[in-house]
Amino acid sequence: MNPLTTCLLLSALLFSIGLAGALSRRNAILVLVGIELMLNAANLNFIAFWRYGPNPAALTGVMFTLFSIGIAAAEAAVGLGIILAVYRHTKSTDLDHMNSLKG
Q1: Where are the domains of the chain?
Q2: C-alpha distances in Å from residue 32, one per residue of 8, 14, 43
Q3: CB-CB contact of 34 with 19 (8 Å)
Q4: What integer pLDDT is reported at residue 53 of this predicted model?
Q5: pTM
Q6: Is 103 helix (H, G, I), strand (E, B) or coil?
Q7: Rg (CA), the chain
Q8: Is the CB of residue 61 less than 8 Å from the CB of residue 49?
Q9: Residues lower than pLDDT 50 in the chain
């Protein structure tokens, strides 16, 4: 098995763990952790395809990964801010209680 296949299998495993965590958890913070795992799996794909691609001298994979890390940091900051605001209102981070904020 070549190194690209190994990286892609690891990325698929990481993505599936993150997806299972994001879909099965009731705690909003753990859902954000699952989403972060999925973004890290995408970053691993960017780096693997850059490293084992036809032109590794061009830093396209690294640039995509840096932008993705910046977007993930912004997503985490906004998500945690929303979770803190909801926690102040409901005193819970359970996602079932968050649907009562409609209207």
Answers
A1: 3-101
A2: 23, 15, 16
A3: yes
A4: 82
A5: 0.83
A6: coil
A7: 17
A8: yes
A9: none
**CA-CA distances (angstroms) from residue 27 to 24, 83, 90, 102?**
9, 10, 13, 19
CA 44 to chain centre: 11
CA atoms 43, 48, 49, 50: torsion sign: positive
The tokens of 95 are what? 């996602």
Classify 57 as helix, strand or coil: coil
Q: Which fold has domain 3-101?
A: Helix Hairpins (1.10.287)
The amino acid at residue 87 is: Y
Q: Which residues pair with 27 in a beta bridge?
A: 94
Minimal CA–CA distance to 28: which of 97, 67, 87, 83?
83
Q: Where are the alpha helices (DSSP H) in 27-59?
A: 28-51
What does the pLDDT look like over 68-94, one tens digit per residue? 889 989 988 998 898 888 888 888 877
Are the C-beta atoms of residues 18 and 36 closer than 8 Å to each other?
Answer: yes
CA distance 49 to 73: 23
